[in-house]
Amino acid sequence: MPTEQNDPQACIAFSMKRVFHDLKFCSKPVGTKKLTKSFGWDTNESFLQHDVHALCRFLLDNLESTMKNTPVQNTIPNLFQGKMKSYIRCKNVKFESRREELFYDIQLNVKGKLDSKSLIF
Questions:
Q1: Measured distance CA(108)–CA(81) in Å, rounded
Q2: Structural domain of residue 106, as residue ranges?
Q3: What is the pLDDT of residues 69-89, one digit of tens each?
Q4: Are 85 and 99 in contact (CB under 8 A)?
């Protein structure tokens, strides 16, 4: 993924690349302050609890934007995008509707599980 033309302080892709590089090649613990700063978060905000779904969307949207007009521009859609087809046919009126929508995430109900906590245990 191209990161050379971007400001390293503000580029999430560059900051992620640096963290993964350091995890692989450094023997010391790897800090994430620069990555957190690239999100636009200050020190206080990094201690707040963030929704994992919102963070995932934030990261994927940012990475997809960074990859635009490059040879890897379709990577995020190829990995995460799906298509949903909706079909509605009225019983009492002569009407049919077909629609195709793109999605990046989908909510699934798991039979017998009422909440996310019960899914874990």
A1: 16
A2: 12-120
A3: 999 999 999 999 999 999 999
A4: yes
